[in-house]
Amino acid sequence: MKKVLFYTFLCVALVGGMLTSCESEQSPMTDNTKLWPAFSYNEESGEVKYGYINSKGEWAIQPIYDVVGTFSNGVAPVAIYNEETDELVYSYIDKNGNQKGAFAYANHHYCGLAVASYDGDIYGFVDASADFKISPMYEDVDDFSDDLARYNDETADGYGFINKKGEVEISAMKLAMYDGIGDFSEELARVRIDDKYGFINKKAEQVIPLTYDYVSRFSDGLATYEMGSKCGFINKKGEMEIPAMYDDVYYFFEDGLAPVEMNGKWGFINKKGDMKIQPMFDDAYSFCEGMALVEINDKIGFIDTKGDLIIPAIYDDVLYSEYFHNGLIAVCTETETSATYSYINKKGETIWSLTIKYGSDEETLSVRSKKNDSKKAFLDKKLTNHYMAGSLRK
Predict the structure, then answer these.
(1) Are the C-beta atoms of 287 and 253 separated by less than 8 Å?
(2) Which candidate among 113, 206, 340, 385 keeps its CA 20 to 30 Å from the CA of 282?
């Protein structure tokens, strides 16, 4: 079954992988603030700095940061590297660049709250004012999803869920029988025992039996499932909505269409299982803001809901997400000697662009200095500790 690929903007500078509001596994409630992360590059030092551009491609917030994230709940997480401590200092900024708080770690807001930590070891949740609404007390806690957050209860050696008041909604004891527990989405959460998947509700009741080889989170009322080597869709009653007849599938998000793979090519079906866009693409992602990423001959382009190729397949990669966000998406084209990073709109027009030439001793798409390498190691450690706990991914 298709798993989400997370591309990062020059690999180092995005909080939490920079997921947009149409991302499938877990997404910040990305708001309508029309500012997008972009970067500047010093050819002499190799230093990369990040800020935010507006819809005209102009700097709205100057590139002074070492880590940036998208806006959610009216603020964006950013960080500046402290050379003396060799650590990142996180904070939140509003659309005018006004700074709030100071943390050892701060993430995007999900359901109005964001994971943050003063020391990088114990985590709590802050609001848009950067004030703790749930005091730091967790060594291992995930972002809120469907108004519940999964946490690791070391005393019970398992995972439970808290609500937005910090109260235990589902105790780890009630979930002790499961090998894996996913976040809630549309009132249901994936669970696993011995490589078989099903779903529980918010009362910890098993409402869909653990009979599937794999399941996704619910999205737009349906979840993907895998039985043997084929994939299909079930509804929230556990009923087969679309038979397992596809080699691979992806999620329904917008416009009532989902990507499916048959015989090595991807097309799109509706919720009745009718093939609305014939399988012709080497890869495809779900629709968001009326556009879907497709891959043709190792190049990336974008189609509309009719299947028309609106933006030609001329790009080598997308930078932080496979989805348009507030009308723009970041893409990359590369040659043997350079890489060009751009924001384009839904007409394929370039709004902002920066080309970086490779040095003889630089690896492809690597433009960071030693200082940036040390920051990457620090950031990766934080993200690994925070995001991978209890993961249901294969």
Answers:
(1) yes
(2) 340
Asked whether residue 72 is assigned to any structural domain, the reply reads yes
Classified as helix, coil or strand, 174 is helix
Element (H, E) at 299: strand 299-303
Other CB atoms within a 10 A radius of the CB of residue 316 amount to 15
In a domain? residue 372 = yes
Question: Torsions phi, psi of 384, nearest 5?
Answer: -65, -45
pTM score: 0.84
Could you give the strand order of the β-sheet that contains 148-153, starting from the edge strand earlier in sequence? 141-145, 148-153, 158-162, 168-170
pLDDT at site 359: 72
Is residue 276 one of the residues assigned to a domain? no
State the Rg of the chain over Cα: 21
Report the C-alpha gap between 50 and 48 in whole angstroms: 7
The DSSP bridge pattern shows strands 275-281 and 132-138 to be unpaired
The tens digit of pLDDT for each residue in 236-245 reads: 999 999 999 9
Beta bridge pairs of residue 114? 109, 126
